[in-house]
Every structure is written in C-alpha cells, then in structure tokens.
Design brief:
heterotrimer, A: 255 residues, three-stranded antiparallel sheet, 4 strands, B: alpha+beta, Arc Repressor Mutant, subunit A, 10 helices, 7 strands
C-alpha cells in the first residue's frame, strides 16, 4: 500500500485543485477507492471478500495517516464505518441486529458492482467511434435553405372595396345626401300653396303629404309641411286649427 | 459501380470531410500515400456520375457537390398565403385609381399617413413601381402600378377598374360611420 | 450498386447538403414528396455500405458520415475533441443507462456529490438534457440523453448502448434496495 500512496503523491497535479480531498485526489471519494482496492483482488466483484476489502481500506488509510497525508473527512467516516462493519462480521452473530452485518456487507458489494458497471460502460462509450474524432460529417455542407415567399391572396374585390371605403369616409356629405331622400321646406311650401289653391274646406295636414311607401320620406315630408303650414299662417295665407292635444292638425286656405 | 478499393474509399472520405476542395497534393498528404491518385479519382468520378452527389474537379481541386439538377432541393421556396394590411391595400387602390401619385397625395386621399413599410411591401410584391418625379415644388417621387399588378388582379388595363359610380351601385361605399370606425381601429392598431 | 432512381438521388443530395441529420418528415418536406422514404433509404444504405462514406440512422434521423475504419486517415490529431473528466464520463454513462435519472440517484451510484460543472459540461456538449421532474417527494429534476448523444457515439437508439442488455439482465441497473429484495426472494426460493 505504501507504494500506492507514494504513487498518488507523485501524481498530485494542480488540475484538480478545486477538489478538497488533498491527499487522495486521485479518487473520487471512498467508494471509488474501495472499488480500486476491490479490483486489485482480481476476482469477480460478486466473489469479492468484503472482509479482505475492509482490511485493505483500513490499512490504506492507516498508511496515509502515517505519512501525515491530509485525509478528507468522508474517507475517515468510511474507515470508521468499515471498522464497525468488520467487528460485526467477526463477532458472534447478533440475531437481533437489523440490518444484519451480512446485509450491510452485501449492500456495499452491490454498490461497488453498480459503480463498476457504470465505470465500464463509460469507458466503452468513450471508446466508440465518435463523431469529430473517428468519424466525420460533411466538412462543408451546402445547407438546405428555405426561401419564404409571400403569396398574396388579395383579389380585385379587396382592391376596389378598399377604394370604396376610402371614398366613403373621405366624402361623407355627398354620401349622406345621396342616401336619404327628404322633402325640403321649399318643396313643402310649394306643395302646400298649390294644394290650398284648389281645396277650400278644412283638411288634415296629413292629406297634403305626398303618397310614399318610405316612412323616412313621409316623416321628412310631415315635418317640413308642418313648418310650411306655420309659415303660411304667419303670412296670413292659411288658417290652422286643432281641437285638442294630438288631434289632427286642420288646415284651410285664408281668403 | 463495383466496390471501391481502399485508396478510393480513403479519397472518398477525405473529400467528404474536407472543409474546402482538395488538390492532388492535399489529398496525398491527408491520405499519407505517395502514388498517382488520378486513376482512383477518375474511377470515383464515374461511380458518382449518375448519382445525386457528384465528384467534380474545379481548377485542379476536387470536391463533392450535389448534382446540379437537384439544386431546387437545396433552395426550396415556400409560399406563405398572406393578405395585405388594410393600409397596404388602400394605398394600392389609391395608386391604381390615381396614378401617378405622390406619397403626400396618397396620404391626403387616405386621410392618414402611410408608414414606410407600406410602399415597400407593395413594391416587393411587384405591384407598384416608382414612376418618376413630378415637376412641382419638392419634386416628389410618384408611384404607379405595374404589369404584374394588372396580372394579379385579372385586369386588362387600368380602365377595367370600376368607377366610383359602379362602386356605389355595387354597395361598396360603406356607410360613413362604419368606415370611420374602421379607420379608428386601424389608427389604434398602427400606433400599438 | 445499380444506378439510383430519382427519389434516391434526391434523398442522397438532401442528406449530403444538410447541415444536420434529417428525420423522415424533414426529408419528405425537403424533397417535396409524400411517400414512404424507407425503401429508398434502405437501398442507399446498402449502396454506401462498403464505401468510404456511409449512410446511417441515429435516433430516427439520417446522415452521411465517414466510415469508422478510416479514422486513422482522417483523425487530424490524437487529441480527444472533448476531453471529459472521469466524473463527467461516469455521470454520462449513468444518465444514458438509467435515464431518466435524478441528481441524487447519480450521486448514490457514484458515492460522491456531483460537482457543479459536471452536468453543465454534459449539457453544453449537447448530450444531456433536463427531462422533467419526477412525481416523488421533492419533485426532483431528472436528466436524460439527447439525439446529439446518439449521433456523437454512433448509436441508433439507447438499445444500442454497449452491454445494456447484459447489465439489465444482471440487475445492475436496478437500485441496491430492489436488488437486495430480489436476492432475498431468490434465497427464500432456494431454501424452500
């Protein structure tokens, strides 16, 4: 074991200085060290003698201490635990112990097997033919380029309706007049004057209105005819009468 | 196309992995062989002649490239169906009805400013072109529509565009309030 | 190796020109064809089997690569392109063989804590990715390997991981607790 320690001492490099396990920085923790020792037994890990392994570990740690190497705490914890396990394994069996020392030893063995399996697997992975080291991809691929092009779906209808809406909103006055048909005051005056010239008895205002199916046009005619009737009464050309509120407004020419 | 020998395989792999075309000397260095590589290259050239990849020599250097007739695979054009923004279609309509027309005139007809991208989109679509400067103060650039515009919208000529009376008859003059609302929505969207 | 048909030529050209491996769906899009490409790929795979360049499938995606036996010619340096620490190699192996696996599980197999940079290095290499949280107390994050991992190590799928079947059969991929239970059952069975 002495030469193992010396070997590790000689190999101490500055690369791993972030690791606190100063003296044992070749190993990644006690389990790693145990696995190395187990492999040194050169038997299948399933056949390994845990007792022998514990002995080796404890000797190793003792040697390191004798050399006054700084030993990280977790190695010492493992050493203490293994010393305990060793004593349990050697002492007469305590049937009450749970878990039994045999089970503890078995657990350790199983853990070592698992770590060993993954270490092997890692090595086999790294040994594969790897891209960029053993296998190469195309050095200068042309690349597959997708050129996006807009396919405009606007049609003639979209175009002319857009123009229509501009026209509609920028020429609102023309637009409104064209849409609504109304009877102006002048038109109503003219009509009333004409009709009063040929009818001499009382007539309802509604009877003076032009005949139309358009209720909007009729309302407009009613409003302008009413104003026209008031105007004619003011000028002394017509007489107005209404029996009560909301009764028909009666109209007659004044001679 | 019989199985390649070791030299041909090595050349094949070296040219494939190379980042630039290799001369005979480069190849010899890479492969570490000191024989005439020309026969092997000729064999490979004929092996690949009818394939999607060809071995070619340009100016004494060799490389693999995809066959010229398959260039369309390397550059694929994808068409995205899209509609013009409201601002763009209105601008296009104004240009079509009033061409040649300056940007300021377009804005005065629309009643809103047009953003820089709007005319770009129309020019990129191939429907609008600059149509010279107007002999007026500031010499403003004017715009007009193109042959491509007529083709896309199925018009023989601009005279086929319906007049304002036709539009009204077709009910295409929206009620004022609706048109104004739309304008407001658009302005808000533009500002956002 | 008879002359390839148009489909084979197109696949050949597309995979040759592509900057990364292509799935069947990618290929169909690039070539603009909607048929099963597998027969054509199989034909190409066998066409290239003995050549310096091979057509391979990795994790459901296809690419061309140089033949492994030519590594000695093409390797520019003996240096490992990505020199991994032993901790990183073991961690990668544990993730690959156990995925999805949590950090605590990795640490319990290795018997030491994972130092901060180890998983970062593997993720930066593009070989390892977070693979969701486990529905267990503490909802630990788990890790798994990527398609880039399969590519790099020349694996078609995780089933190709060296020795994975043997390890599984030997129970070496099971946690210690489960292995112990298993042993007890066997012991009882033996005793019975």
């Amino acid at each position: 074991m002495r030469d193992l320690c010396d070997h590790k001492l000689g190999k101490r490099d500055s690369v791993n200085d972030e690791i606190l396990t100063l003296a044992l920085d070749g190993w990644e923790g006690p389990l790693d060290l145990l696995l190395m020792l187990a492999r040194n037994q050169k038997v299948d890990l399933r056949e390994i003698s845990i007792l022998a392994l514990v002995e080796q570990y404890l000797t190793f740690i003792e040697d390191a201490r004798a050399l006054r190497l700084e030993i990280a705490a977790d190695y010492l914890v493992m050493a203490a635990w293994l010393a305990f396990l060793k004593s349990c394994l050697l002492l007469p069996r305590d049937v009450e112990a749970d878990p039994s020392p045999e089970e503890l030893a078995l657990r350790l063995q199983l853990r070592l097997q698992r770590l060993d399996a993954m270490r092997d697997a890692g090595a086999r992975l790294m040994g594969r033919d790897r891209i960029g080291r053993d296998i190469f991809l195309r050095g200068a691929p042309e690349g597959l380029k997708v050129i996006r092009q807009s396919a405009w779906t606007d049609d003639l209808y979209d175009l002319i309706s857009a123009y229509g809406s501009i026209q509609a909103r920028t020429a609102p006055v023309v637009h409104m007049v064209a849409r609504r048909s109304v009877v102006t005051l002048d038109q109503a005056l003219e009509r009333l004057k004409k009709m009063l010239g040929v009818h001499f008895e009382w007539m309802r205002l509604e009877d003076f209105l032009p005949d139309t199916p358009d209720p909007a046009y009729r309302r407009s005619a009613l409003a302008s005819s009413f104003v026209a009737a008031l105007e004619l009464a003011r000028l002394g050309r017509a007489d107005l009468a209404q029996e009560t509120h909301f009764a028909p407004l009666m109209l007659k020419a004044l001679r | 196309m019989e199985a390649p020998d070791d030299l041909q395989r090595a050349i094949e792999a070296a040219l494939f992995a190379a980042e630039s075309p290799l001369s005979l000397a480069d190849l010899a260095t890479v492969i570490g062989i000191d024989t005439d590589l020309r026969p092997a290259l000729a064999k490979l050239e004929s092996d690949y002649a009818g394939r999607g990849i060809n071995l070619v020599e340009r100016g004494g250097r060799w490389h693999f490239e995809t066959s010229a007739d398959l260039a369309h695979i390397l550059r694929r054009t994808r068409e995205d169906p899209r509609k013009l923004s409201r601002a763009a279609i209105e601008t296009l309509a104004i240009i079509a009805y009033h061409e040649p027309v300056s940007r300021a005139e377009i804005e005065s007809i629309r009643g809103v400013q047009i953003s820089k991208g709007t005319l770009d989109v129309l020019m990129e679509a191939g429907w609008v072109r600059p149509a010279g400067r107007r002999e007026a103060p500031g010499r403003p650039l004017t715009f007009a529509t193109t042959r491509g515009f007529l083709d896309h919208f199925g018009l023989q000529s601009r005279r086929d565009l319906p007049g304002i009376d036709d539009l009204r008859a077709a009910g295409l003059l929206d009620p004022v309030d609706i048109a104004l609302e739309q304008l407001e929505v658009e302005t808000i969207a533009d500002e956002a």
